[in-house]
Amino acid sequence: MSEQVRVRYAPSPTGHPHIGNIRTALFNWLFARRNNGKFIVRVEDTDQERLVPGAVDSILEGLQWLGIDWDEGPQVGGDFGSYYQSERLEHYSAAAETLIDTDHAYRCYCTRERLSELRDSQKANKQSIGYDGHCRSLSDTERNDLDSSGQSYVVRFKMPHDGMTSVNDIIRGEVEWQHHLLDDFVLLKSDGFPTYHLAVVVDDNLMHISHVLRAEEWLSSTPRHLLIYQALGFTPPKFGHLPMILGPDKSKLSKRHGATSILEYRDDGYLPDALKNFMVLLGWSLDDHSDVIPLETIQSEFSLDRVGKPASIFDIDRLQWMNGVYIRELSDDQLTDLMLPFITDNTVSIDREYLLRVVPLIKERIKTLAESKDITSYFFDTDVGCSKAQIIQKGMDASQTITALKNIISAVHKLDPFASGNIEEVLRTTCVESDLKPREFFGLIRSAVTGRDATPPLFELMEVLGKDSTLLRLEKALSLF
Ligand code: GLU
To answer: What residue ranges of the chain are covered by domains with CATH 1.10.10.350?
Structure first.
């Protein structure tokens, strides 16, 4: 690639960023990094009515958490700032003036009422909805009169009536639009703020953006953008529209599919690299079959030729599974540090060294860090909340259970050292002596010591609990009878 690659992620802070938005950021970032280019973040905050307080912060925090760093944009600055569109209004009004002067745009004084009547009548007559060009042919005198009466106006683009515009989209190939199907859309609103169409073109041009990689929903805006580029005499960037992301039921991805703010994934205990791996596969593939792909490989292999056209399906179970895989790749020390904040709260403070011994036992089973508290709870709380009914194993009665518990307690008392191999050997003998099936005998110990039916290997977990804590739990179980 000869020209410098400069790509941007241009979020509108009208809500908290979800997987779909961040996938766009990720693809742009990977493309920039792969091609020694620049990745720019630009905040598209021109729709003042729809701004959501805190949205910009959560977008930036989400990117930082994921390790998606930007070369220009909020916090870091750059040569083409401001990177907030609301601070760049003079560029858009200048462009709108140029378009008016060159007869590519005009002032439209139509009132809200007229536009809403127009829309109603178009609906009633089953016509396509759009501006009818009412103010396109006002005479200079009519315009001057409206201006001097203080009538507010918007600036509209003068859509050519015939011909067509086409784009050779990097991902979707050749796409064409007939001009007569497009209306005279608004460039500048009556409050002086630009619409998305004008601002995006002006900024992509001023910021020397080489490739616009964005979600497919923006494809239909592309002919408008290309026409503005042409009218302003700018060279357009290359365009690539990323495939849609759908929920497992093939409907548009929404909150009910688990597509919540990206920071919720952090709070739910997903690892940034797992999420990046998961997100990159929503549209890109390495070789049609690999799913767990190290970040270095993703970074070195990412290319737009392997971004497909078909919609991708967002599957939260797959993300959970992948997160588990990434968790198992962590060292015990790393996992301990990551789990600590999920377990510690105002009421419990955790001994790190102890947790470090628990971690190898649960590492195979944990899928998200948010499970940390529950999956380890019985290691920290001797009150395992086990009922009499849970302790009495299938095929046993209360008196057999009491006898067995007594045998177990006296065997455990004598255990020295209290190490898994020794624990196993002694308890297997006690099992035979108690004349119980291993399923009954060890099921009983498991319930009494952990309060759970499924746990990591019993003898190893008893070793980690230690002799005193194990005895305490067995005694508590016996006291229920
Ligand atoms: N501000 C638009 C958004 O929120 C950006 C569209 C584009 O990338 O052109 O997605």
So the answer is: 382-481
For the record, the structure tokens of 401 come out as 């259970």
Superfamily name with CATH number, domain 89-242? HUPs (3.40.50.620)
Contacts of 396 (CB under 8 A, 6+ apart): 404, 436, 440, 444
What is the pLDDT at residue 84?
97
Q: Which fold has domain 331-381?
A: Helicase, Ruva Protein; domain 3 (1.10.8)
User: Where do we find the tokens 């009556």?
Assistant: 190
For residue range 9-41, list pLDDT tens digits in order: 999 999 888 888 999 999 999 999 999 999 999
The domain 382-481 having CATH identifier 1.10.620.20: the answer here is no
pLDDT tens-place string over residues 343-360? 987 676 789 999 999 999
- Say how far apart CA 92 and CA 96 lie, in whole Å: 6
- Pocket residue to mutate for ligand 1, from 26, 41, 44, 209, most atoms within 8 A of Cβ: 44
The response to whether residue 11 sits with its C-beta less than 6 Å from ligand 1 reads yes
For the segment 388-443, what is each residue's pLDDT rounded down to a tens digit? 999 999 999 999 999 999 999 999 999 999 999 999 999 999 999 999 999 999 99
462 lines ligand 1 (CB under 6 A): no
Centroid of ligand 1 to alpha carbon of 264 (angstroms)? 22
